[in-house]
Amino acid sequence: MTVKAYSILFQKAKDGSPVKDLLTDFSMGCVAFPFKLSGDVKELPMDDYPDEDGEDVFIPEILTVKAYDLDVDFSYKGADAENGVRVFIDYLLGHDGTGASLKVYNPYIKMGRSKIYITGFSEPEFNRENDEEIANFTISFRVTDPRTRVVPSYDGNNNIIGLTTT
User: Fold this and answer.
1) I want to staple 114 with a disulfide (CB 3.0 to 4.6 A). Which of 46, 60, 103, 159 is the partner?
2) Can you give the residue range of the structural domain that contains 155?
């Protein structure tokens, strides 16, 4: 089985922020961005009386879900791996001046989420292939809104101009 890296689209939540393509803007690919269809259900308030069978649970009309964490493997390939990784991490941390809250869309599986932020990253493993430098690393994210969907919005020429929540 061959694993192929693909692109992910990022847009900061700050108004007017551009959509960034992982491949074209950062020279990186992603093996998987494992969004969940929904997070796990939050624990329900309950009492477990020792002198009664079962549990006394409050079950609301609509169950709510928990935020969740995910780890994503990235690979940079280009002329300067250390700088390439640093630029991407700085973007995620908000050092570019556009904030740290992200909308992320995976065009491969056509799924996206909003209100995501970076929680950590591994030290890159650096290699060289021919004249190009390669860096493989993992970034941890927190998905704080596990239900709101993110989809791309297009202009009249079918170019992606933003990531919209639905």
Assistant:
1) 103
2) 9-36+63-165
